[in-house]
Amino acid sequence: MTQTINVSVFKLTVKNLLMLNQILLILFSLSLLSAQTIAPEVTEEKKRLLVLAADKGIPDDAIDRKVSKIVAEVASKLGRYEVIDRNQLKSILNELALQRAGFIDEKNIIELGGIASAKEAMKVQINHYSQKGVPPKDNDDDDDDRGFWEMLVYESVKGVIRMATTPEEEEPYANNMETIIQADIILLNIETGITINIYPISGTHTGGSRGKSLGIALDVLKNSIVRSLKEMYVVQSEILEAKGSKVTLLLGSDLGVDKGTIYEISRLDKKRTIGEREIIIPGRTVGLVRINRSSGDASMGTVIRKWGRVKTGYQAKEMLDPPRGSIGFSLRLNHDEQRIDHGDILFQINPLSRWGGFFYLGGGSIFDSRNDMDGVFSVGGGFIYRFFYTPQFNLGGVVDLPFLFVNRDDDFGHSVSTILLAPQLGLQTEIMINRKLDFVIRGGISSPGSYSTWDYTEGEGEDVEWFDAEWDERGEPALDASGMYINFSIRYLDIKIDY
C-alpha cells in the first residue's frame, strides 16, 4: 500500500516537473520575442555638406555652374544643411589665410572636406541640356484640316520663305524656345569618394525667348531640387505634448521647420531579439500633423488627419509628398424631383486645408418647361471654406459655379443646345473612412440660372454656320435649375503611407 502511494506521488512529481519545464520554456521563448520600444530618432543638427563646383574649364555662365549655384542656394534656404559652396570657397580660404599658407589643395576632396568639417559632398552632373525653337502648337490645329500632299507643299513653301526672310544669325522660332534640363545631384562620401546616392532633377519649358525660356525652366528645376534635397536629409522629430488635436513638437525654424510643414506621426519602432538576431519593427502610422507656427527649437501644430491615437513621445517624420488633391465620384439627388439627376468625376484641391477648391466633369439630365428630359454635360468648379475642422470630420461652406451644356431637338428635328449657368450655395461635410478614403455629403440650393439662346450648327471646319433653333407655336422651352439638392461622393486621397 505504501509502495503504491510512493509510486503515485513520484508520478505526480514528474508530471509537475514536466509541466513546469514547459511553462519555463514558453516564458523563455516569450522573453526572446519580447519587444523593446526604441526612442524616437530626432534630427539634432544640420548636415554639413560641401557643394562641389563645376570643372574649372567651364565658363561662369555655363548651365553647370548655374545649376550648382541654385543647388547651394536651395540647400541653404532649407535650413537643414550647413552648406560650404565650393563656388565661393576661394574667397573663404583667402579670408582664413589658409590658401597662402599652402594648406589647401583644391584638387583634394578629402582635405576640402576636412576644412569644411563635412563628411559628404554633392556635385551636379548635367545629363542633357538643349534649347531650340519649335513651331507654336496653334499651328497644329490648322494642319489637321489639310491633306498629305497639301501639307507637303505648304510646309515646303513655308520653309523656303522662312529661310529667305530669316537673317543668318537668327534661328527659327526664336520667340518660342524649348528648354530641357536633365541632371543628377550626386551625393559622395568625401573620405572614400564612393557615390552614396543619385537624385535625378529636371526642368523644362516651352515659350518665349532663349533667356526667358531658360529662366522659367530653371524655376521648374528649382522645385525638383527642393524635393531631392528634402529626400536627401529628412527631418525627424518627436511629439513633446499632445492635447486633443493640438501638439507641440521638438525642432523649429533653426532646422527649417516652417508653417505648413506636414509630419507623418507614428508609434515608436520596436526592437525584438530572436535568437542572437535583433530586428527593428517600424511603428504604425497614426496620423498627420501640420505646423502652424514655430520658434527656433520647437513648433506648434494641428492634427489634420488621424486613424489612430496621437500620443506624447510618438515620432514625427517630415512628409515629402503630402496630398495636394483628391479624386472622387459624385452622385446628386434632386430633392424636388426625388431622383438622381447628375453624376460627375470630382477633383479637389487642398483637401486637408481650411480653404480648398474643386472642379468636375459630368453629365445628367434636366426637365424643361415642356416636361421633356434634356441631356446635360457639365463642367464647373468652386471653392470651400471648412469653418469646422477636426482630424476625422469637417464641415464647410461651398460655392459652386456649374456650366451646363443642355442638348435636345427643336420642333423641326435640329439637334440644338444652350449653356445654362446656375450658381449654387451649400454646406459640405467630410467624414473619414480610413487614411485614404472619405465619405462626402453636400447639401444646398441652386439658383434658377440663366441660359443662352438655343442654337444649332451646320457645316464643318471653316464653313460652319450657327442658326437659331426653330420652335412651333408653343415657343422655346425654358430651363429652371432652382431647387434643393444633396450630393453623395467618395473621395480618394493619395497619401503615400501603407503601414
Descriptive keywords:
499 residues, Rossmann fold, Thrombin, subunit H, Porin, 3 domains, 8-stranded antiparallel β-barrel, 6-stranded antiparallel beta barrel, 7 helices
Please explain how this structure is put together.
The chain is flat. The chain starts with a helix and ends in a 6-residue tail after the last strand. Helix content is 22%, strand content 44%. It has 3 domains: 47-134 and 173-232, Rossmann fold (3-Layer(aba) Sandwich), CATH 3.40.50; 236-318, Beta Barrel (Thrombin, subunit H); 325-493, outer membrane protein from Thermus thermophilus HB27 (Porin, Beta Barrel), CATH 2.40.160.70. Helix 2 (63-78) crosses helix 7. It is α+β, with helices and mostly antiparallel strands and 499 residues long. The strands form 5 sheets. Strands 15-16-17-18-19-21-22-26 form an 8-stranded antiparallel beta barrel. Mean pLDDT is 83; it is low at 1-5, 7-12 and 95-114. It has 7 helices and 26 strands. It has helices at 2-33, 63-78, 89-96, 109-116, 138-144, 148-165, 210-232, and strands spanning 35-37, 47-52, 81-85, 120-133, 177-189, 195-206, 236-243, 246-250, 262-266, 270-274, 277-281, 285-294, 298-306, 315-318, 325-334, 339-349, 355-367, 373-389, 393-409, 415-421, 424-432, 437-446, 450-451, 455-458, 465-468, 483-493.
The CATH homologous superfamily of the largest domain: outer membrane protein from Thermus thermophilus HB27
- What Rg, in angstroms, do the CA atoms define? 34 Å
Major beta-sheet overview: 8 strands, antiparallel, barrel
Report the strand count.
26
| Proportion of beta-strand residues | 35-45%
- The CATH topology name of the largest domain reads Porin
Relative helix content: 10-25%
